[in-house]
Amino acid sequence: MKYQLKIPRKDTAVPGRKFSLKRQIVRAGWLFILVIALLLLILQVNFMKSYQKDGDEKRTNDMYVYGQTLETHFNQLLDAVRTIYSENHAFEEIGAYRSPAEKWDNVYELLNTLRIQVNSNQAIGGLFVYYDSYEQVQYAINGDWSLTDLQELKEAGRTVLKSSESIYSTVLLETDEDLLYNIYMKKNTAALGGGISLSQGLPDEKDSTAVYGVIHNSQFYPVWSEEGTDPWSVYEGLGEGWMDQLLPGRNRMDGKIIYFNPLNSADLAVVEILPESIWLYMDRIHVVFMILICLFLLGAARLMYFVYHELSRPLKDMTKALANIKEGVWEVHFSAPNRIIEIEDVRHSVKALLGEIEQYKIRFYEEELEKAKIHRQYLQLQLAPHFYTNCLKNAYYMLALKEYDNSEIFLQKLSAHMRYLLQQDASFVTVEQEIRFVENYVDMQKLMTSKGLSCTIEADEMVMNVEIPVLTLQTFVENSVKYARDAGGSQLFIEISAKLRKTEEGNYLDITVRDNGPGYPDELLEVINQENPVEKDGLGVGVINLQKRIRLFYGDRASWYFENRGGAVSELILTEEREVP
User: In this protein, which residues make up the domain named Signal transduction histidine kinase internal region (predicted)?
Assistant: First the structure.
């Protein structure tokens, strides 16, 4: 049916200075584009600064953790060697034996000690004992070192012990597979040695363009670089003495970015060297964002060009819209700025029609459709065919197994469950009634499944007679049981809380349901945490049904929040007064 309105002709003259529609649209459009472009550029710069800051913090922290790991391993190695050196009787006697039997007894005892130390401390790669003027060596290693590494270590130890007059010596050994840091302590014709791997503690996520290494005695030793990359080429071009100029943290030097961290208890420092490039300051997403900004500017310029040359069309649309409204066609789409002479008649028409459209089309027609849709969803939710099929199957199995007591209890609770759902036109129930219904449902679930289920309910006495939408608590309890059953696992614990919150704006009912299950799926959380959730691919039908009923009954005075924190957590805040009785 069409309604025909006779709108009295009004004087279209507008007091005050008049504006050109074409000029105002162009000015407003360009101002909007420039503001948005400026905001996007500021946002891009901030993103890049944040990216650089995060990268610097990560690399600095990686070097700190790497250095702390090596320092801890070095101290553990040093403590182990010192303890044996100063306290082990077999080591004292190994250089002063009187017979071969005594010598081998001491060697055997000392070797057991070395094995105990290595096995009890995985940070230590290996321990060595040299005797007979360092010609003979026995060792204990943790299994990470290859035979080639072991042979190189033995020979390196002999060389250091024979060439050095110092009691305590250190040496770095580069093998085919690793970089090792070794210490030696000698006494008479015997000596102790031990080593750790300098690749321990490297960050799990490494920059593919970086070289990680250590500095020892003003010499750089690479520890890790991307496979196929020459580590020496990464820091080519650095001038002489560059290591002496490094400061803890980030250093910029000759086109390289160096993160430096010296160790306190060893003559070592750890470094990460990267070639300076644009990717240290921006990621690929920033490049994409910059391209999108350029595309936006190009598109906006093209749009403004179109608007500038097609300004007459909106005027024709407004004139046509006015004619359609007078003929009873209510669906009109147009946009115009304020104080424009050409659209004054349209404004008068809209003012005359707004009340009728909102009253008869929006508030009545659409609201009734929404109520009908929600009611159908509610009835479908009540039916729950799979649940009742399982209930009947469960009762059948109980009777077949002659569990008459359990079957009688189960059928009684199922009967109470059905009576509650089929009560005539009950949109609201008291908190006490809903709690009893939930307790009955939990008891049914305990009889239906072998999975452990426990439900605790804490409710203020003053809220027991407060009315809430039917199935408010039951919806979340069913969700907890559903997702916990699908995920399997240990016993399910459900906690229900109903509290009265008194505020200056009025009293609120705070309902919280939490469990220790796997929680809501991420895609469901994204849907149900919206202000006006929309069902998507069948997700959360029960929860969204409840949210729509709450929005219908309480309007904007109700709120909800859902999250996963050690399980699913669901919270509803309801007022004592409702918009729809």
Answer: 377-449
